Amino acid sequence: MYTLTDSFYVGSPTRINEMKPLTTMGSDDELIQACRAGDTEAFRWLYRRHQGRVRATLYQLCADAALDDLVQEVFLRAWKGLPRFRQSAQFSTWLYRIVWNVASDCRRQQARMRAQRQQLPQLVSTAHDPASLTHLHYQDLVQRGLQHLSPEHRDVLVLHDLEQLPQAQVAQILGIPVGTVKSRLHHGRAQLRQFLQREGISL
């Protein structure tokens, strides 16, 4: 079956580079406990451990619009929300939920801006000229294809196919039944496959 996988910056850069390897640090739960006790250094480690996947997920959900600001917003919300975090929950699932909320807020803001300016969607590339398509990489085409999907279908494909999260975890993050995840995966993949085929990609 075709899937996509087939195809609070915190601290200065110098300080980040001087940190110990992540393997020497404790688990997420241990770091969270330290954060709750007011240890900001522990939060630096949580940031360093998770910021790569947060950034990648935001890019797929929102393209590159103000990406650094979005990453910062995710970890700012995470820091503020740690006192309410339930230890029985998985930290990565909780963090993905914040990512999804930030991405949703970003998309709503972009939609309002597009309506106000009465312009074509910023997330849809203007490179529809067949001559320019020859210079695009497959990854660029996938990104464009994702932006043609509805937010509901794009969210599920990014979390499941790109981030490789189980369907049950995707359902928990998005607050929808597993059956809905499966349905959106099926339809989203079909739409993306059709887009890529129209762009000359054989699957």
UniProtKB/TrEMBL annotation:
Which positions fall inside the RNA polymerase sigma-70 region domain? 46-112
Q: Which UniProt keywords apply?
A: Sigma factor, Transcription, Transcription regulation
Which family does the entry's similarity section mention?
Answer: Belongs to the sigma-70 factor family. ECF subfamily.
Protein encoded by which gene: sigW
Q: Does the keyword Transcription regulation apply?
A: yes
Read off the InterPro entries from this record: RNA_pol_sigma-70-like (IPR039425), RNA_pol_sigma-70_dom (IPR014284), RNA_pol_sigma70_r2 (IPR007627), RNA_pol_sigma70_r4_t2 (IPR013249), RNA_pol_sigma_r2 (IPR013325), RNA_pol_sigma_r3/r4-like (IPR013324), WH-like_DNA-bd_sf (IPR036388)
User: Which GO terms fall under molecular function for this chain's record?
Assistant: DNA binding; sigma factor activity
GO biological process annotations for this chain's record?
DNA-templated transcription initiation
NCBIfam families attached here? Answer: PRK12518.1, sigma70-ECF
Name a Pfam family for this protein: Sigma70_r2
Output the superkingdom of the source species: Bacteria
The record lists the organism as Halomicronema hongdechloris C2206
Domain (RNA polymerase sigma factor 70 region 4 type) spans 141-192
| Protein name per UniProt | ECF RNA polymerase sigma factor SigW
Q: Which Gene3D superfamilies match?
A: 1.10.1740.10, Winged helix-like DNA-binding domain superfamily/Winged helix DNA-binding domain
